[in-house]
């Protein structure tokens, strides 16, 4: 009896550990120690030398949107871009940003994964690879509907972007 309990406990811990490691490994590779408990934005502490060609994550604004979107923002003016800003994001399963809008159009590039979107109250699912067009000022949110983390690149055509949070992500399962 005791052996069965020990074996079942070990298997449960092994399964939990593997599942945690499954998500922990890509999160660490993306530059985060762990998945945070609450949203935050941290300005870069290391200024980027605009004569460089490689922008390392240590030069970027780092953020987390609860539940499950980790990322970096390259506000174009900080990197000597004239008309470009970029967002690099990783969305955990059932993770995504709150409902928000930008004052300019945006596009998302996803190489693989299944993502549910809401743009201007229209709801749809995209399966990578794809590019999604988001009109200027459109309220939008997305949710990773796959079982593994996905990477999203957001491109905005201005070097000084805006972000207006509207409310919680409407795609969250209640």
TrEMBL record:
Start and end residues of each Cupin type-2 domain: 92-152
Sections of the chain in a coiled coil: none
SUPFAM superfamilies registered for this protein in UniProt: RmlC-like cupins (SSF51182)
One Pfam family cited in the UniProt record for this chain: Cupin_2
Protein's UniProt name: Cupin domain-containing protein
Protein's organism: Algoriphagus yeomjeoni
């Amino acid at each position: 009896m005791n052996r069965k309990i020990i074996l079942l406990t070990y298997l449960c811990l092994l399964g939990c550990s593997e599942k945690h490691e499954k998500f922990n490994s890509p999160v660490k590779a993306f530059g985060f120690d762990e998945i945070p408990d609450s949203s935050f934005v941290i300005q870069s502490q290391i200024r980027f030398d605009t004569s460089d060609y490689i922008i390392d994550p240590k030069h970027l604004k780092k953020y987390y949107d609860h539940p499950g979107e980790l990322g970096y923002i390259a506000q174009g003016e900080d990197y000597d871009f004239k008309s470009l800003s970029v967002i690099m994001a990783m969305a955990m399963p059932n993770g995504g940003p709150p409902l928000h809008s930008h004052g300019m159009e945006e596009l998302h590039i996803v190489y693989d994964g299944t993502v549910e979107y809401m743009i201007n109250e229209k709801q749809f699912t995209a399966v990578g690879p794809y590019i999604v067009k988001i009109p200027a000022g459109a309220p939008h949110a997305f949710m990773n509907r796959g079982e593994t983390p996905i990477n999203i690149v957001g491109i905005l055509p201005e070097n000084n972007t805006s972000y207006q949070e509207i409310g919680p992500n409407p795609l969250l399962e209640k």
